[in-house]
Specification:
The protein is an alpha/beta fold. It has helices at 2-24, 79-84, 95-112, 119-126, 129-137, 140-150, 170-187, 206-219, 231-239, 245-252, 258-261, 263-273, 278-285, 296-303, 312-322, 349-355, 408-417, 507-512, and strands at 39-42, 73-75, 116-118, 195-202, 223-226, 288-293, 327-331, 343-346, 357-359, 382-385, 396-399, 422-426, 430-434, 440-445, 448-458, 461-470, 474-477, 482-486, 521-526, 529-534, 540-544, 547-559. It has 18 helices and 22 strands.
């Protein structure tokens, strides 16, 4: 209890200090020593070109199945199947589905006449006509459970190798190099490599997720270590159950049999769990911490306790970052958890406009299929945590993969419901680098960042002043706005065909190009929803990178069922 109270006081002081610093130092013209930006918000899941993700590579001639892990394999017979079908894995109302899964595996085995197949082949066979109906009835949790139980152990000595220089999306390398450049400033004049700790705290399966990041950053010249914290480890440390990590992973992460698939990594994580100071010591060692994954709720559970108080590990990260001696980066929806304001946990813009935002855990993917959606919520419900995330960015609610997935409705709904002054959405292939001490920021990558101010809401609509800046632009956050904006000045070509669909697509950004062609408004309709963008004499506009950069324009989104 005393430790929890002490941590709460420390982290509270850090967050107040961060917020005060951004306001008090914003006008300062003195450049601080050390890194220019302590926080990297990476709007992409940042899937890397690797031997298990060769689809992300522009060339695959380098793949070598003899020395690399190029496939995940599953076993269609034996004890693994028996354990999968055990009653303990299937609630009573899903036992019929369980029996259908048993028959489907038998059908695939008879069709292929082989015990072991690649996961890719298994998926292709399961989605063929005979068993497609069953596949479409499974929740994401159930499908993951099937794969986890059937997966064979990872081959020893065959790593999942990443090749940064082979990436199809060059912006990913640009973002990683910008992140490393800031971390290198922490190292300063010391004669050593830059040190990076990687935590897959936002991933359902941290073991599978973390390896390519370790490999990729080593390939860029960094010294890299795995920071093996996740929701299961945090709970195990708090409750002194480190020897029960296998069971806790099932409960907290919904992963199965990881100790059998990755025995060495499992052993390493158990030892980490049993050494409470291992996490803070690694933070002391590191110049930067990279947090990856797609579940902000899991990030919260990895670094905070059930009362939303920080662990010793989280406290050490916050204090070192505040001292300008640590860079923190987060990818995809793990990025959402960096805020101290209301944290978006999941959901879709259409449902946010139709039904509002709900304080609570996000529904799991396809929860409608196995009847696991929380009460009064559906699979698309927008959920948020009112107490925020890890608190490293004091001013704004955050959202990732933003324009590409049309997340404007859900971001502005959560910001308006919680009276958050700023709402920041980062696109794919883009990162927002922020100096949390002064408020300075820059946009890195090839897409853009949306910044909403003073979001307002009615039962069926949201609206806000907004800015949209692309890679190469920069500015400064104030308490409730941005200032000193410098637009990017470069040419580029947007490869995607333009669309007017804005609920789950790029329609808003694509249509905004009209604002740089002399138009002062854009009015789009998609089904029962309307999007209105308006610029006036106070709005600044400039083309860059094939997009239209805008400041001080206004956006409104509404659900209008009575019109149809």
């Amino acid at each position: 209890m005393k430790s929890s109270i002490r941590n709460a006081l420390i982290i509270g002081g850090v967050l107040l200090s961060l917020a005060g610093s951004m306001q008090a130092l914003a006008q300062s013209t003195e450049r601080p020593t050390g890194p220019d930006y302590q926080l990297f918000l990476i709007g992409d899941e940042l899937v890397l070109c690797g031997s298990l993700a060769w689809q992300e590579c522009f060339d695959t001639d380098w793949l070598d199945p003899e020395t690399m892990r190029t496939e995940r394999y599953v076993n269609l017979v034996g004890e693994q199947v028996k354990h999968l079908l055990d009653d303990s894995n299937w609630p009573s109302h899903r036992r019929t589905v369980r029996d259908d899964v048993k028959d489907a595996i038998a059908i695939i085995y008879e069709r292929l006449n082989i015990d072991v197949v690649t996961e890719r082949t298994f998926h292709e066979e399961f989605t063929r006509r005979v068993t497609r109906h069953l596949y479409d009835s499974l929740s994401e949790r159930e499908w993951n459970m099937i794969i986890d139980h059937l997966e064979l152990p990872a081959p020893v000595g065959k790593p999942n190798v990443a090749q940064i220089k082979m990436l199809k999306v060059r912006a990913k390398e640009e973002i990683l190099r910008a992140f490393l450049a800031e971390a290198d400033k922490v190292r300063g004049a010391e004669n050593r490599s830059t040190r990076i700790a990687v935590a897959a705290a936002g991933a359902r399966d941290p073991f599978t997720t973390v390896e390519p990041y370790l490999n990729a950053l080593e390939g860029l010249g960094a010294e890299v270590q795995w920071l093996p914290i996740d929701a299961a480890v945090n709970r195990a440390q708090r409750t002194k159950q480190c020897d029960n990590l296998v069971e806790l992973r099932e409960q907290e992460l919904h992963t199965w049999r990881r100790a059998e698939v990755f025995p060495e990594l499992h052993h390493h994580q158990v030892e980490f769990c049993k050494t409470p100071l291992a996490g803070p010591k690694m933070v002391d060692w590191a110049d930067a911490v990279l947090i990856v994954g797609e579940d902000p709720g899991l990030v919260r559970k990895a670094f905070l306790d059930p009362m939303s108080q920080p662990t010793d590990l989280m406290t050490s990260i916050a204090l070192k970052m505040r001292a300008n001696r640590l860079i923190v980066a987060a990818t995809a929806d793990a990025m959402n958890a960096m805020t101290s304001k209301a944290m978006i946990a999941g959901g879709m813009s259409a449902e946010a406009l139709r039904s509002g935002a709900v304080a609570g855990e996000a529904p799991s993917a396809n929860c409608d299929r196995d009847e696991s959606c929380p009460r009064s919520m559906n699979v698309d419900s927008t959920a948020y945590h009112p107490l925020g995330g890890l608190g490293l960015l004091p001013l704004a609610t955050l959202d990732s993969r933003f324009s590409d997935l049309g997340r404007h409705g859900r971001l502005l709904r959560v910001a308006a419901a919680n009276k958050v002054p700023l709402a920041v959405g980062v696109d794919r292939r883009t990162a927002l680098a922020v100096n949390v001490l002064t408020g300075r920021f820059k946009v890195v990558g090839e897409r853009g960042v949306f910044i909403g101010e003073a979001a307002q809401e009615t039962d069926q609509a949201v609206a806000a002043t907004f800015h949209y800046l692309v890679g190469g632009s920069q500015g400064r956050f104030t308490t409730d706005s941005i200032a000193d904006v410098q637009f990017a000045e470069h040419d580029g070509v947007v490869a995607e065909a333009p669309t007017t669909r804005f609920l789950n697509n790029r329609g808003m950004v694509d249509s905004m190009r009209l604002l740089c062609q002399g138009r002062d408004s854009v009015n789009l309709i998609e089904n029962e929803f309307r999007l209105l963008v308006v610029a006036d004499d106070n709005s600044q506009r400039q083309k860059a990178g094939g997009e239209c950069q805008v400041t001080n324009a206004r956006v409104g989104l509404s659900w209008q069922p009575e019109r149809w």
